Amino acid sequence: MSDSNVTASVNICVIGSGYVGLVAAVCFAEMGHHVVCVDNNEEKVAQLQRGETPIFEAHLPEMLVRHLNKGVKFTTDLAEGIHPAEAVFIAVGTPQGNTGAADLSYVEAVVSQIAQAMNGYKVLVEKSTVPVYTNEWITRCMHRHGVASDRFDIVSNPEFLREGTAVGDFLHPDRIVVGANNERSAELLRRIYAPLTDGSYYTQPGALEGPCSAEEPAKLVVTSAQSAEIIKHAANAFLAMKISFINAVANLAEAVEADIEDIALGMGLDARIGPRFLRAGLGYGGSCFPKDVAAFSWVAEQQGVDFHLLSEVRKINERQLDLFFEKIHSALWTLRGKKIAALGLAFKSDTDDIRDSPAIALIRRLLEAGVKVAAYDPAAMESAQRVLPASELLSYVADPYTAAEHADATVILTEWKQFAELDLNRMNRALKFPIMIDGRNLYSPAVMRDHGFTYVSVGRPAIYASTMGRPRKSTI
Ligand code: NAD
Ligand code: UGA
Description:
Layout (H helix, E strand, L loop, with lengths): L2 H5 L3 E5 L3 H12 L3 E5 L3 H8 L10 H8 L4 E4 L2 H5 L4 E4 L14 H13 L4 E5 L7 H11 L7 E5 L9 H6 L4 E5 L2 H15 L2 H4 L16 E4 L1 H31 L4 H9 L20 H14 L6 H24 L6 E5 L14 H11 L3 E5 L4 H7 L6 E3 L3 H5 L4 E4 L4 H4 L3 H7 L4 E4 L6 H6 L3 E3 L20
Parallel strand pairs: 1-2, 1-4, 2-3, 4-5, 5-6, 7-8, 9-10, 9-12, 10-11, 12-13, 13-14
Antiparallel strand pairs: 6-7
Helix pairs in contact: 2-4, 11-13, 11-14, 13-14
The chain binds nicotinamide-adenine-dinucleotide and uridine-5'-diphosphate-glucuronic acid.
């Protein structure tokens, strides 16, 4: 680490050690800051203190071990984290409440605790995804607890990392957004992110490689707190919209025997559209898009703004899973008593996170229909078993080939690279019938035909093995 980094180091407290808090805490340490990360989950904190990473995330285990008890330490004692800190990042969950609005009770609980532990001026940073005006509510909450305005500022610094690539996204961000309502607090956030924005991090020995460099460092945008809060919701809603859009086009493509992969390529080459987030499939899941689309919709409704587009985004997404279930039904004729190999449990590849996973939702529906499911995922087996325990109908197996043994069909539910590289001859031999229903379009239909499969995917013409024939619509 360079001397300039040492002198610029900031004392930071991060509250919450989940996917965002833990990644932020470890990456801030990697950037040369001194971080105390607080969580009220004793088991998680004990694990972190032993240097064990509780989540599956590339680069995180080695980075944690490198900085543990040097740049970053973990505690359940909030005051221990708050007292030395100039900046306090709030990174607790903001799940969906009953009305669709974000449930901010965890944020409020943390703010009340911070208020009681204040020992000098601090900047409170909203890292959690929160609705517009949360900065005002936090201010009000601090006042209610008797903390005067001159002892704190609130900044919105939304996080844009994706699970599975979280460390890379954090250290090589497309942009850093700082929503600050005064210069003093904006300046502290500029200091915190300086190693990324002045490029010094990228010249550090052992720095994580990625798209940013000393020549092209990360960009930081300063806005008002309200604008930053909206940027986060709008960005997630826009990405969700892109996915729903391509899924709707995929359904049209299927109806006219066009190919969604060709269509996405042709659309994505337009620089104004771009190729990313145009992968048709089962629909989006995860702990963020579904809840953030709902929360943003609620915000618009509260403000009397017509934003029905967001309801359509959600509806298309929900329908996408129904359509996929119908595809399985149609390919197998009847479902009760059949056996299906389910490849994928996580809501996307490269993570063990199963929150709002389309794979889990689909498996639940198969089980309800009396189907036996043999499931496999490279990382999410443990988390899946916590919400969907093994039963007479559901088994968890060691690999895709065991899942396929004597199964009536294989379904691909998560876009893991491993599932795109299956030994197709071995799969064909293991299956009772060579049927694959692919919710992630991992294979070319021509390759599947050559391997003798009936292959049904999303937004592309289905391929039927010569012995099977195409089912008529009335069999659905
Ligand atoms: P998470 O559930 O993985 O982690 C939240 C952590 O906060 C948990 O470890 C929990 O024990 C802890 N916590 C809750 N109350 C606490 C308290 N009073 N004191 C101390 N710790 C407490 O959640 P996450 O996925 O990290 O998401 C956090 C926020 O970041 C959410 O608002 C989410 O929308 C947003 N976000 C998430 C991602 C993502 O990819 N997961 C990306 C960007 C933004
Ligand atoms: C998403 C955003 O990409 C992040 O920028 C944001 O910070 C985060 O939400 C958040 O706010 O929590 P994440 O949920 O980790 O990140 O994962 P994505 O890669 O965005 O995938 C979300 C879902 O969309 C997955 O189910 C994925 O399979 C699906 N998806 C994604 C598609 O179906 N098609 C695509 O083209 C892209």
